[in-house]
Amino acid sequence: MLEEGLINHPVVGFGELGRKVNELRNLFRKIEESESLSPSAAEVQRTECLRSLREVATSFSERPARGDLTGEVCHWADGYHLNAALYEKMLGSVFDTLDEGKLTEEVEEILELLKSTWRILGITEIIHDTCYAWVLFRQFVFTGEQGLLKVVIEHLRKIPLKEQRGPQERLHLKSLRSSVDADDSCQDFTFFQSFLSPVQKWVDKKLNDYHLHFSEGSSMMVDIVTVAMLTRRILGEENDKAMESPDRDQIDRYITSSVKSAFMKIAHSVEIKADTSHEHVLASLAEETKKLLKIEANIFSPVLSRWHPQAAVLSASLLHKLYGNKLGPFLEHAEHLTEDVVSVFPAADSLEQYIMSVMASVVGDDGLDSLCRQKLVPYEIESKSGMVVLRWVNGQLERVETWVKRAAEQETWDPISPQQRHGGSIVEVYRIIEETADQFFAFKVPMRIGELNSFCRGIDKAFQIYTQLVTQPIVDKEDLVPPVPVLTRYKKELGIKAFVKKEIQEVRPVDERKSSEIVQLTMSKLCVRLNSLYYAISQLGKLEDSISERWAKRQSDKINIRRSMNGKSKSVVSNQKNQFDGSRKEINAAIDRVCEFTGLKVIFWDLQQPFIDNMYKNSVSQARLDTIVEVLDLVLAQLCDVIVEQLRDRVVTGLLQASLDGLVRVILDGGPTRVFSPNDAPLLEEDLEILKEFFISGGDGLPRGTVENLVSRVRPVINLIKQETRVLIDDLREVTQGGKSKFGSDSKTLLRVLCHRNDSEASHY
């Protein structure tokens, strides 16, 4: 070692000391020869040689330095390579011989002792910190002891930046260069490069795949990244690189490299397991990618965000892109709601939502919109999924309509039981619709409000179709009510043509098919139809609530994500309470129609002979209303046995209206067999009162106010019956000349009352 440093590579020429070079070599030779002598002789010779060697070596070491930076004497060796190697070896003595991953307890004393070599070896504070950091780091690599890494960081931080060093220090460090021969080329290194490039290379290798190397925790990773950033800063100055944000750029590269590597590994792993797994590869890959991002967000991003505030955003957006590349071809060919689509779409959508939530946790909801536009190309799974869901919905709704029609056509309109007075068809309709709704919500694929609205519109249409089928046999009023007789005088065959020319209408006979249908519509079957319609409308609210709740539960956690992905705010949890208003309107109208038909059928069809044809025939006193009321009582008893309580008043009101229509018909259009005089008015009023009280039924029937309102339209007609013929003729003349009736009547009503008068004055007029 002395020969290398003093003789073979002297930093300054020997001058007058040249003659002592041979003397020094002789001393080296004698020391080697002493190895072959006897122990006692060898000890004597070695001691004498070492004493002489000390004197000669000291004189060689302390030659004038010629402007040496470290003092008035020169370093003992030419260049710093040997000095650095020696110092590196001496620094190795700081480690505990029993535990090489720990520093010895005497580390401070050793370092203080080594300072005495700085002058001769040309060591400065910066050189010491650099060498010591290298020695410690190398020992860390060998032992894996994290405590050494923290000391490395401490000494790297002591190394000042270039502008913080003095001019002589900068010149001195610049002069310390070394070279490495490799592959027929020579690579030149500065002082810092020779020590710190291996460090940087090692940490870069680890951090370029940090998912592999730091999977068990992040504490070690913090120190490794710190070392990487410190060495990068120092070496960056050596290369005279002007880096605006070196830390962030380098973290970018670490994230990109490691995330890509980790994703490729999980993709390969998923593909290997594909043969044994029942799940689609892309669905499995989405789940594994989400797990990877969770690890990234929870373990690695908090570390990397110290140098890159948006580290989580970068890793999340990169995984979004990597998975998107795999997903793209599948999305292009997804046309129907297949098993693969049902598997992949929810998994991919869930991944995208989680990616968005990770990004939102960094930039907030406000910053998420612009970030999505800059960094992401959305999968648009919701849009694609909506298309295939709509195809499924349309197909299912066609089947629902077919089943609804079949159920209605096969219905016998008998009550299920005394407690369930509706038909079995409406129960079957609800079963079909609820099963379809269950299937709709069982799909975990993303859906928009449009798909739900289409589904609800289809269900609404199905109920309307059912309602139309329920009321299909209900004929028009004109087919049910007998035609009005030709307006004539009492017991006269000839019509009064001057008045009836425009009154006579063509009589439409009811065809046999319609007549048969009307006969089959018994009171019991009409009530079951009404009960079925009521069951349909009463259960709509539950169906709406079920749909609304399931939709709200499904969508509530996606509001913010959807807003950012679509670039505009949407009401995701829509109000579904009015989705079936079309059905409600249709069913209510149908109930009113059936109630009206039921009343008209009873009065004008079932009771046509006693009521329409025979009541008040020839004389009011001989054919009163009381006999009809007895029959109506039996009809009401039969009706109330079958009709549900909630519809009782509505259908009974229809019967009352039909009864009043029949009464007015008999009085005004009773034909040539009816005659009325003012003396009949009290009897008619008495009959009207009987009819009113019958429907009020002592408070058990219809509300008195409702009955009074309906009956009130008949009273003006009876009031006309009270009037003398001359008064009626004068009033009719006034009306026909454009005046106003003092009884509030019209010309047709006045004419009909006069036609049913059996007196000379009426006949003459």
From TrEMBL:
Listed InterPro entries: Munc13_1, Munc13_dom-2, PATROL1_C, unc-13_homologue
Gene3D superfamilies in UniProt: 1.10.357.50
Residue limits of the MHD2 domain? 622-732
- Domain of life per record: Eukaryota
Q: Domain named MHD1: which ranges?
A: 342-484
Which protein, by its recorded name, is this?
Answer: MHD1 domain-containing protein
- Its source organism is Aegilops tauschii subsp. strangulata (Goatgrass)
Q: What is the lineage of its organism?
A: Eukaryota, Viridiplantae, Streptophyta, Embryophyta, Tracheophyta
